[in-house]
Batch of 2 targets.
Target 1
Amino acid sequence: MGIIKVRDLVFEYIRRDEEGNVEGITTAVDNVNLDIEQGDFVAILGHNGSGKSTLAKHLNAILYPTEGTVWVDGKDTQKEEHLWEIRQTAGMVFQNPDNQIIGQIVEEDVGFGPENMGIPTKEIWERVEESLRAVGMYEFRKYSPNKLSGGQKQRVSIAGVIAMHPKCIVLDEPTAMLDPKGRKEVIRAVRALNDVENITIILITHYMEEVIYADKVYVMDQGEVTLQGTPRQVFSEVERLKELRLDVPQVTLLAHELRKEGFPIPEGILTNEEFREALDNIAGKL
Amino acid sequence: MLRDITLGQYYQADSVIHRLDPRVKLGGTILFIISLFLFDSVIGYLVAAVFLALVINLSKVPFRFMIKGMKAIVFLLMITVVFNLFLTPGEPLVAVWKFTITKEGVRLAVLLAIRLSFLIIGSSIMTLTTTPNQLTDGLEKMLGPLKKIKVPVHEIAMMMSIALRFIPILMEETDKIMKAQLARCADFESGNLIKRAKGLVPLLVPLFISAFRRANDLAMAMEARCYRGGEHRTKMKPLRYARRDLIAYGIIFCYLAVGIVAGHYESILLSFIGITGGAI
């Protein structure tokens, strides 16, 4: 069994009025199935309100399924006794960097998770050093988080999760509040963790550029998984993605438009290099 | 910039006092304050002055930094001094219209002024040499025994340190909301007190909403990182007494003993002078 397995997951938010009567039920996640293997880099895409964040919170046992089951490393998230093991196995990074840093100094924040796990002091220091080095923030260890840029803060948050030695990290729109530079920093750090440490990454985002390196992409709409496959497979369906109000990477879009005009360019171009190659091929033919 | 504001007034330096365990500094400050009320003699205050000068010197914090803290309470100091000067009954020294200054009044006013300024300088040494974080850690450890009577010591310390972490963030947010509301013609400055208080509503409501939202996010982030209260928790930076801390305790108690003994002898000395004076 893979690191994460989700079967027929349904989650309903119950809205109540002031007296506590049920006003209505919103199905945020509807019949979702996921299978994620150890070491995978998985991206979950969707516009606002598509249920992707709700799904993410199930993987860390912050929310529990209304129906269906979620297994993290073979453990059912609904079983109380597994709660802390699951939260340690699947670390979570949230959207707002300010609201998830607890410590007043970078190194103290990274040490917060291990402290909670009851790791001995000496080992905490080793873990903090190693995690800060893994995200390239070691030289900032004595800084106050308030003095860091958004991208740096998010890297500290990631280090805080790595220090707990998770098998899997769920990142819930970690770049949504960052500038392009910060976004690049964070994605680079995440990819390095996936490549070097073989940590499973589940990246939730609505930036298409961030998912082209993923092994597998799931696209969500209205609580359901509507598209899934490799980035190339998913981005070949430009029209469908547009319907879902998702932005396709510019170069993919350009290639798609050219193809529609009759140029012999393959579908699912993801990077500038691929596009250049395709153009060279055409130039050779003409 | 707003982000640079730190609570308290920590002065970064590398000194013996800075390196002391926060518990020693907290305890020492409390003992020093008690000593100021215990000593009721000129010699006692001299001992306190020498002790204070020694600590200031050791702390490597410039003296003008300590004086800065005094400015805020100069007014309070003046009031107490004036009241004591004029309202203490005793042997009249100078009489101006309805007010008389007595000999006892002068003595009391001077002693009180010294006592209060020592108290403020003494406690500002603690805040100047200890980061707020160390202070909360020290408090948590010192109040640890209270856990037995179900005082949530760990929770209080955690709340304090989270509050400290969010003060600059919320200040910046206040600034942002204020600018946003000013851009929509909100008026925070004119009108009488009631009008101004009402003007704060469009500032406070969004601030509270955002603070609650942040609190919710933070709680979730803490849970996601396995936070479950103080139990089973280890410390990254545990407080451990070093040799210098024990020495510091020793010095503080020596100071107390010297002060008390000196005060004792002074009263004997004074009463002796009093008796001989009476005989003559």
Target 2
Amino acid sequence: MPLKYHSNYISTTKYNVITFLPKAIFEQFRRVANLYFLLAAILSLTPVAPLSAVSMIAPLAFVVGLSMAKEALEDWRRFIQDMKVNSRKVAVHKSEGLFGYTHWQKLRVGDLVKVEKDQFFPADLLLLSSSYEDGICYVETMNLDGETNLKVKRSLEVTLPLDEDEAFKDFRGIIRCEDPNSSLYSFVGNFEYQQQVYALDPNQILLRDSKLRNTQYIYGVVIFTGHDTKVMQNSTDSPSKRSRIEKKMDKIIYVLFSVLVLISLISSIGFAVNTKYYMPNWWFLEPKNTNDLYNPDKPALSGLFHLITALILYGYLIPISLYVSTEVVKVLQAMFINQDLHMYDEETGIPAQARTSNLNEELGQVHTILSDKTGTLTCNQMDFLKCSIAGVSYGVGSTEVEIAAAKHMSSESDFGTSEIEIEPSTPMTPVFERVRKSTIKGFNFEDDRLMNGSWTHEPNSGKILMFFRILALCHTAIPELNEETGVFTYEAESPDEGAFLVAAREFGFEFCKRTQSSVFVRERYSPADDLVEREFKVLNLLEFNSKRKRMSVIVRDESGQILLLCKGADSIIFERLSKTGRTFEGDTTRHLSEYGEAGLRTLALSYRVLEESEYLAWNAEFVKAKTSIGADRDVQLERVAELMEKELILVGATAVEDKLQRGVPQCIDKLAQAGLKLWVLTGDKMETAINIGYACSLLRQGMKQICLSAAPSDPTQPNAKQAVKENLSLQISNAIQMVKLERDPHAAFALIIDGKALTHTLQDDLKARFLELAVNCASVICCRVSPKQKALVTRLVKEGTGKTTLAVGDGANDVGMIQEADIGVGISGVEGMQAVMASDFAISQFRFLERLLVVHGHWCYKRVAQMICYFFYKNIAFGLTIFYFEAFTGFSGQSVYDDWYMLLFNVVLTSLPVISLGAFEQDVSSEVCLQFPALYQQGTKNLFFDWYRILGWMGNGLYSSLVLYFLSVSIFSSESAFRSDGQTADMAAVGTAMFTCIIWAVNIQIALTMSHFTWIQHLFVWGSIASWYLFLLAYGAGSPLISGNAFQILVEALGPTAVYWLSTLFIAVVCNLPYLAHISYQRACNPLDHHVIQEIKYYKKDLEDHDMWKRERSKARQETKIGFTARVEAKIRHLKCRLHKKIPSLTIQTVC
Amino acid sequence: MSSSLASVSTAEESGDTSPQQKQSKKPKYSRFTQQELPACKPLLTPGIVIGIFALIAVVFIPIGLASLSASESVVEVVDRYDADCVPSDMQGRELDFIQNSSTNKTCTRRLIIPKTMKSPVHIYYELDNFYQNHRRYVKSRSDKQLLNPSKEGETKICAPEGNTPDGKPIVPCGLIAWSLFNDTYTFSVNSKIIQVNKKNIAWASDRSHKFSKDVYPKNFQKGALIGGGKLNESIPLSEQEDLIVWMRTAALPTFRKLYGRIEEDLLANEEITVVIDNNYNTYSFGGKKKLVLSTASWIGGKNSFLGVAYLTVGGLCLSLALGFIILYLFKPRTLGDPSYLSWNRNPSASAD
């Protein structure tokens, strides 16, 4: 073969054995601070260093080693996952018609494989034949696009005979096709077989990672392998993500670096000047007898050396332990996330999992959530809940929206407030009980009027019978008998159809068999009756597509009557009703809007009785259209179908609940109240997506929907693409205009866009305006999007708005988006592990997202922000004192502190309190976080890590350093004795006293910063201070060869001295006075939300004044246009309006 | 959903009897992991704010007054003699004067005692512009050598004063010892010599643990360059208290070091005659030399800074406390007043 194809081996790891060390080390030293410390460590081996080498190298090795070990572990897990996939087995044609099993990774392009039922395809295959005679097979593409319905693939007719192992003995063919690409829905190529060339289309292509269903086996030829496959082409490299705060932290470190370089330059210039002009006079230094480090004859060289010394000495400005401490803190925070019982799912037994700890604080700053639909918001299960037959609505079950609205209306009459209480648990219970009651999957219908055959006593029983027959006949599903239970289950193209069939079965119309030409239904009108199996000949099937929005079957029943059964979107059906068929139109319309409001998916059902002659005439035309070849075949078919689907008689409508996962509407509601935007990206078709939008309250009645879709274009036209694009551009402009001109404050817009339109709008020239429109809409739903488009949309939001994005999904099709977003959340435990493997956080239910963001995110953001600010403060306060002292030593590079003090400062004496701040601080309790989602805005608005605050902390550090140094020096001035026995203070005494003040000052500072003291904080903060004295005692008691002038310093020199203790008290207080005054003033005049809530809690006002507490909680919610509450409020507005119309004398100001 | 629910409920039932793998994944409840540890949440209420500032003021002002009065009670006599002790014919050639070993360096000074100085009166010498804290200087000592007679060869870090030109180790080595201060003072009142006690001027720990009584000065000040004072080679280092005091390097370039103590009262208006051996060279770098007589109080020598600082901050806190009282009186805010919540203050912003 001329081309070298990829092997079928896949690898998703970041490193391999050889590249790990260089790549991981490179990653580590991309952190500027690490690079600096590496340099400092190297230089500390030379005599230039002011500090010992060990004290520079050890912490660095620790930090880098820890981080690299973490990376290695994460990559190892990915490797194991890959190995599992690579060593799956598949049957391959060996020779002479014999098939043998081999590992996936050994597959090559051109291999013939046989894939059996419920196996994954190992590579992209060309379907040759299947266990079905007509060469069809059913495929589940869950991992590719998230859809669980089955897709039918059809082989070429010419390869149909190749349906057994022996047939492949002498099989030869040539496939020519396009290069590997990422488009899942297109394929161009041809197949040369037996001297004939056949065109290939996506219908014959089986994609890797999709699953063979309902088909015993298929034969196929490998076309693309490994990383050439469509699914791998759709995967993007997993990027290493860093949080916004961490990126900003780097900037701060750059600032500190500049300061460091600046003061080092000042030092070295000062040193050079001193060395040149003054040192020759300093006979006590023997200036004539020096080396290059202090050579008065070469001041420039000495100055240069000194620059390096100074850079190392002032290194304390850059907190090396910041990285270690943040790593430790984040691991602790991740542990809290993992251990949170509120995010543990009892049903699946899976706790939440922070897969990377890098992004904890980012959780507190999320602005937009991009969510997958299937498996994330929904369980992908439809339940037949209600129906309207002949103008009567059946089904007593109620949806969550209805329950909440009812609850609210009753509570309003009691309290007179506009409080809507949706406790996470309360509305769940009825729903939950309902689920428990019904044990039939897909059927949640309760109404004694229809069940158990009692429908026969209803007035319109004839219509009801027709309704049930339409349910049982108008579909494309295949029945499957469950051998154990004897119950039929259905493999349907869509879960709605499945729900209809289950409903029909429960009503006594059991669809049991499908042949090429007939559908068999076992009917039983009442439990007492016998089963009657009836055969309906299917004459024609007019398929569903998103443009027609309807499907019909034409059947001949046993009596020979020809019926057209049609189900479809209500608008489509209603415009095709005959005059006589409109009897129930009014009632049905009313019911439909009620169902829609309740978040149900609705379809209208209708029929038409056909005359034999009428049918025959039409059928001739239909067959003609069907057999016509050419581009207009579809158009022809549609036109002919249109001729038949008219003059319909309306029977009724169905309402199916797309089963949302538990707590999803409440969670969306809370997230909306926290000010988060939610975009839904789904591979589903537009109708399904819209229905789900209703179900989870992203859409509601009265919302203005803006639908963007690509106008169908004539591909023959040369600039068809251009035309489509212009059309879209126009649509967007109009929509933007509409949004801008809207005056009603309650108006909300929803943007719905499909994948085809997205391909155009995501191009450079349109995407800015598309984004402008999208951010102005309350909810955005993208349907029919490919995995790549999901990632592209995510990137657009991320880069276009500059805000933090979070992507949540469960399937392999969400991997791209999960990786692209600032934070990727995987839903674990449903289907596959790809999404979880690519994610940063894994939760088992969508509803846990609320707690993950609003509680953990909020806390982690504040903790990390405060911690980093404090870190900079403390290191500036400490580091600058070293610099000031330099000015008094002729810039010689001498430190006033003992080496040991400096080493311990970051590692022991101040690290634990700051870790306890970072790990345990809580501004408000978790309950309050959940009750006041608005508090989350503090993170989104970045109130705690903006430059104003950072500079404030730095200023505080600068102030403290000045106070610490100059007050200490003035008090311990060597010009007068500091003790009653006349001793003067030497350098060790001054240094130790100053250091004591620093320890007190920074620890009191952190105590002032904290608002939540458990025994841990107390232990760490006060323990740090105590440990300093303990250290001094121990250090002073050791060998004087180690401690030098610090020998017995506390016991002998400082301890018995009043001035020492007075200076500590004084300086510690003065350092913290401005901060204390500032926060007191701020709280007095400008309290932040959490301050006020802390006070309410502190005085237990929430218990005394229940109404106020409730009122504030409801006000705290962002005025949202989406979500459950918004929807209930809209409904209330609506009801109030009606009320006003009835009682015009009542004047309440309400905007309707 | 419903079927999975059913299976879970059975799993739970069996889980009670036999712990399953599934159950082991459930995080164990503890107040720590659930972040529900009991905590105290102090709050800066107006009362506490005013209380803190008032308390600081109440504590600081008395301390300030006490320190100030202690500092005031200290009597201090300072006499700068570096310039006056150069004979008039050598003025302008101070370096020649101090470096010439044959010049007469004796110098007599008269001090008037302003107030009665109670015994003990501490005698200090004060140097200025002398960088005892220079890195080159600070590092130039060998603690091992001072402590252990067998380690006298450990002079590497003492360069350039580690070894004599012929290679013998210098004890004590290094620039610090080499530049030992060597002016001496003799005091007399009305021709009666006042005894100066030079014992116990160094830290006891230094004498007992850092300067060995078995180590004697050796080869000290024998090199080509003579630095400061010489040492009596028959006295062990532990008793060379002037050296021990000198070896405690000062933190700042202006410093005082204890020279000795006069253990008798000096009466007011007494004239004290000091005979100074002005040997030490501060002329090359323009450093002043001062002789200081001072009593000591509980805060040490005369240093009013601490008292003034305490009083200032105490006063500041008092005014802050008053300021906050006024603030709370004129701009009262009920704590926990919900109208201060952001969504109540700025409704349009929250509706954004």
